[in-house]
Amino acid sequence: MDAPRKAIACSLIAENVSLEGDLVSDGDVQLDGAVRGDLKLNHLTIGETGQVDGLITAETVEVRGRVTGAITAKTVRLYATARVDGDITHLQIAIDAGAHFAGRSIKLVQAVPEQLSLVDVAAE
Fold first, then answer.
1. Is 123 helix (H, G, I), strand (E, B) or coil?
2. Sheet with strand 66-68: strands edge to edge
3. Are 40 and 57 in contact (CB under 8 A)?
4. Between the CA atoms of 87, 83, 56 and 26, what dihedral angle is there, to the nearest 10 degrees?
5. In which element (H, E) is residue 121 found?
6. What pLDDT, in 10s, does the model give residues 42-76?
7. What's the pTM?
8. For the chain, the helix, strand and coil percentages under 3-state DSSP, each to the nearest 5
9. Cα–Cα dist 100/83, whole Å
């Protein structure tokens, strides 16, 4: 029997904090400060004062601040105060009126299970 997943507290990078380097977490991160580097997270919320200069990879990304770099996530939401300069690769995306987005919106392709083709079956 699998043990229940341990609850992980949300990490906060406050407005007066500036980080340089990559950030990796399997938990949730609230970013109100600035990060220069790549982020690999479960859930990222960028507040209005938050800034990222780098690549973001996550399950879910909510942006109210600035991002310069590509975002790859299953779900992305850009709020009215968001400013994103970079491509967004996603399964679902929502962009509120007033948000700035300069880049490409690319649909994330999930792996399709291999199937026997009719040609292979007919050849047998």
1. helix
2. 18-20, 34-36, 51-53, 66-68, 83-85, 100-102
3. yes
4. -140
5. helix 118-123
6. 999 999 999 999 999 999 999 999 999 999 999 99
7. 0.81
8. 5, 50, 45
9. 5
